[in-house]
Amino acid sequence: MPFPIKVCAICSEEFELKPDKPGFANRCPECSAEEFTDPVSKQRMDSDERKNQTEANAARRQAMRELLYRKDS
């Protein structure tokens, strides 16, 4: 069974849509490869930033809990 022929949304080239192709189904492998080769720069957080983020998340959870489970009296 032949693979379906698609047209790339970026470069308008025809390509075969094969199973387990990385990227989007409407992009050719060359256009999809550019997206995966970009290095992902992950920001490192120090202990103060992690503590601040943890406290902010706890405050958000508490606020949501209060909104969801408050009694209307």
Proportion in helices: 40-55%
The major sheet is characterized as: 2 strands, antiparallel
Mean pLDDT: 83
SSE sequence, one letter per element: EEHH
- Rg measurement, Å: 23 Å
Strand residues, percent: 5-15%
Order the strands across the largest sheet as they lie in space: 1-2
- Report the principal-axis shape: elongated
Structural summary, described in words:
It is a single chain. 44% of the residues lie in helices and 8% in strands. It has 73 residues and is mainly α. The chain has a domain at 5-37. 3% of the residues are buried. Residues 41-53 have a biased composition (Basic and acidic residues).
Task: Give the topology.
Layout: E1 5-7, E2 14-16, H1 29-37, H2 47-69
Antiparallel strand pairs: 1-2
List keywords for this structure.
73 residues, mainly alpha, two-stranded antiparallel ribbon, 44% helix, transcription, DNA-directed RNA polymerase subunit RPC12/RpoP
